[in-house]
Specification:
This protein is mainly α and 90 residues long. It has a domain of 53 residues. The protein contains three helices and no strands. Helix 1 packs across helix 2. The chain is elongated.
């Protein structure tokens, strides 16, 4: 699928200068930028959906961990004293 995009002259000049400095085509540079943007926004949306699902689960069950419990567990990551995730509670 071919898509065209109109950009102002200043931005076009900046893209061209960056493409030259990276020895890359302007199309490749723009494709890379769009791909990175879409990946970042997809990750942001996934995070948001996971947070909303977690909130709904909490409202239904009341199960949770406190911030202190989570931080204490995370401090063990990568150490010889690494522990399993603590149990959620009401």
């Amino acid at each position: 699928m071919a898509t065209s995009l109109k950009i102002d002259d200043d931005l076009e000049d900046r893209v061209q200068q960056l493409a030259v400095s990276r020895q890359q085509s302007t199309q490749g540079l723009m494709r890379e930028a769009i791909e990175q943007y879409v990946e970042r926004e997809e990750a942001r949306e996934n995070f948001k959906q996971e947070a909303l699902a977690s909130w709904e689960d909490y409202k239904e069950t009341g199960l949770h961990l406190t911030g202190d419990e989570l931080r204490a567990w995370m401090k063990t990551w990568g150490t010889e004293a690494e522990t399993e995730a603590p149990e959620c509670h009401k």
